[in-house]
Amino acid sequence: MASIKISGDTSGEITISAPAVAGTNTITLPAETGSVITSTSLNTESNLVRLAGETLSSNTSLVEFSTSLITTTYKTYILYARMRPVTDTSRILLRFNDNTGTVMTTVSDYQEQAYRGVGIDFDDDTVSSITHIGATGTGTGEFAVQRYEIHEPRATDRKTIITFHCGYIDAGGDSALTMGSGCCSVAEDNQGFRIFFDNGDMASGSSYVLFGVKS
Amino acid sequence: MKKCVDGVMIEMTSEEETVRQAEIISDSADTQAMLDKLAQKETDKANGRQKLKDLGLTDAEVDALIGS
């Protein structure tokens, strides 16, 4: 492997290497002042910081994010979820923990408005979770893709606001859309959140990725 | 049953499984209540549209008033 070594002023050296099988390729340096972002520094330099993500290796009841990941470092979090249920006709739900870390499950805990591609719009100030309303299923090709933007979950003086955009293949095998917004009904430090299906597990092969958004 | 916490797969305790099973029952009930509300709203909308049409409004005029 051919390489160039550049010594540091004080110590050490940086080695720039070509791959063993290099082909005929050109890397052009930008005509500007700055630092090169590497695969290591990408997360710290980017405005979107990947905090967690995986493809579920087995059927899973819920995916939960605790205060280890949901901190005051970021005011906004983005969660992408690509979920397929184990049980037919299921809806992805989102729930938060209260300021003691206890999951909130009652209709006095959330409010939501949603606009749907099929069916009547939804507006309810007494819901027990944030829901995409329509159901996806277990038929061939059926699953749901959800993008949540979660704002100020750890603020003590603001209600956590959630905006979401869900595309899914409904239990009849057709395309469906739900877009909406909701909030936690009480302004408090919401110590984490979770997603899950309303009537069963997430199927193996479902996946998610969580980002923190730098202010 | 398993859960994923902060990217780590964990076997749920028997107590957690019990809570989860109870949540599935209550969540299914909440979902049905939500669907019932939406169905009632659909019915109210259709009834309201028909009453407007009975007054002589065209479908286009009703759409202009309340949306399609």
Topology:
The complex is a heterodimer of chains A (215) and B (68).
Chain A: E1 3-7, E2 13-17, H1 42-45, E3 48-55, E4 62-65, E5 76-83, E6 92-96, E7 110-116, E8 122-127, E9 130-131, E10 144-151, E11 161-169, E12 175-184, E13 193-197, E14 207-213
Antiparallel strand pairs in A: 1-2, 3-14, 4-13, 5-10, 5-14, 6-9, 6-13, 7-8, 7-12, 10-11, 11-12
Chain B: E1 2-5, E2 8-11, H1 14-54, H2 59-66
Antiparallel strand pairs in B: 1-2
In a nutshell, what does this entry contain?
Chain A is mainly β and 215 residues long. Chain A has one helix at residues 42-45; strands at residues 3-7, 13-17, 48-55, 62-65, 76-83, 92-96, 110-116, 122-127, 130-131, 144-151, 161-169, 175-184, 193-197, 207-213. Classes of the chains: A mainly beta (215), B mainly alpha (68).
Question: Gap between N and C termini of chain A, in Å?
Answer: 42 Å
The rough form of chain A would be described as: globular
- Largest interface chains and counts: A-B, 33 and 23 residues
Structural class, from secondary structure content of chain A?
Answer: mainly beta
What's the gyration radius of chain B in Å?
23 Å
Largest sheet of chain B: 2 strands, antiparallel
Largest sheet of chain A: 8 strands, antiparallel
> Quick one: overall form of chain B?
elongated
Number of separate structural domains of chain B:
1
Low-confidence sequence ranges of chain B: none
Structural class, from secondary structure content of chain B? Answer: mainly alpha
